[in-house]
Amino acid sequence: MSATPFDQLDGWIWYDGQIVPWKDAKLHVLSHGLHYGSSVFEGERAYGGEIFKSTEHSERLKKSARILDFEIPYTVAEIDAAKRLVLQKNGMMDAYLRPVAWRGSEMMGVAAQHNKIHLAIAAWEWPSYFDPAQKMKGIRIDMAEYRRPDPATAPSAAKAAGLYMICTISKHKAERKGYADALMLDWQGRVAECTGANVFFIRDGVVHTPIADCFLDGITRRTVIDLAKRRGFEVTERRIMPDELSSFNECFITGSAAEVTPVSEIGPYTFHPGNMTKVLMEDYSAEVQPKSKAA
Fold it and tell me: Helices then strands (H, E): number in the chain?
């Protein structure tokens, strides 16, 4: 990743229906989204010039906004088209895309029914979320102090910016200790997810993953579950307690940024990236390629 600050990169950003120079894509310091977390976003990847599951991401963005009680003033088709335009304008084939929507600055207070809803879409090169050499060996993950909140206390079905506050804190603490990420438990002490990725475990040829009812049911998560079932792998979505981690042989995490990344360690527990993880990594890599170019 470039050492240049993100607000100083060169390129073009789609902003409220217009393509603007990257450095001109600004918002006011009194924007509601900055002060009260009324912001939703997506993380997507383009491979070979095509955005993987673009429409699913656009639909989820719209849904997330509705959960936060605002309506993005563009259709799913318009958002899809805007993302394609951003790729084209920036001359990118393989890229990470970040659509983000937020309440503007018309009202400053908890209530903001009349604030304008903004939408911006940026794209940049982001080859691997984790160090490529470390990724092949399996990344090391710490145990997070913070837990995913009870869904009765937070809009856990939305990809809402505010929900990532505890993720940033947890990832920072993990990185300072030499880990790549942190595993978060849910409010009842069960295994939930990492700070920006869903988690899977393998034991005796069966894939296990936590039920996504208090954290985001990731698009990559669902893709990998489908790929595993296509392979004939048994997949069980269930409650997983931390003391079960010692019984699993393999572990990997999934996300648009992380893709499929093997894990070698979670706190005191060790795993050995094996054949099933390798197969799912390869299947995912093939799945995301434009179908005309897939092997």
Answer: 7, 16
